[in-house]
Amino acid sequence: MKNICVFCGSSIGLDKRYAEAAARLGELLADNRCTLYYGGGSVGLMNVIANKMLENGREVVGVMPDFLLAHEIGHPNITKMIPTKTMAERKEILMRESDAFIAMPGGFGTLDEITEVVVADQLRLMDKPLALYNTLGYFDGIISWIKRGIEDGFVRSEHYHNIIVTDDPKELLERMENYKPLRVEKWIKDIKDEVKN
């Protein structure tokens, strides 16, 4: 894995441990000679991880829509900024160029990015690992929602098991390196059979 996309907040969070976790992840990615792909911001956790990568001499590529660049929140010192016309184009580029995805705490934008990757994996449009860096248990609510979906028959357990969840950044990278997606060869047949029954 060379190009790692990190989805995370444009806010810093109220607990300083979020920023500390972002800095640790940035150092670890730099130590592993990764290139960071991210939303391009100079604010929030995005800024923390980008700066940590730059401090360690690694390349940082931002992808940001023109309307956000107009608000001057794009990071001025990153290796490359790719402007886009829409948020959808931004996600398309991040998903195409990245070898793997890590989600840190964030808001609705981060949630949107996570679900976009999960759906692409579910439909076998790509086979790239997604890890939730579960700092302070931030993603516990989403995990509970997924498990409820499995219990009630709306989510396939195989799709959940393709998501890596940990609060340890070293374990996170190791599991991403060893990622082998569980194949769901028959899930479309299964949902068709549900209609027949």
Q: Strand-residue fraction?
A: 15-25%
Mean pLDDT: 92
The CATH topology, please?
Rossmann fold
Return the CATH architecture.
Answer: 3-Layer(aba) Sandwich
Please state the CA-atom Rg, rounded to the nearest Å.
17 Å
Spell the H/E element sequence: EHEHEHEHEHEHHEHH
Count all strands and give the number: 7
The helical percent reads 40-55%
Q: Tell me about the biggest sheet? A: 7 strands, parallel
Distance between the termini: 44 Å
CATH class: Alpha Beta
The largest sheet has its strands arranged as 4-3-2-1-5-6-7
As residue ranges, the low-confidence spans are none
Overview of this protein structure:
The chain is α/β, with parallel strands linked by helices and 197 residues long. The protein has one domain: Rossmann fold, CATH 3.40.50. It is 48% helix and 16% strand. It has nine helices and seven strands, in the order βαβαβαβαβαβααβαα. The chain has a seven-stranded parallel beta sheet with strand order 4-3-2-1-5-6-7, sandwiched between helices. α1 packs parallel to α2. The model has no long low-confidence stretch (mean pLDDT 92).
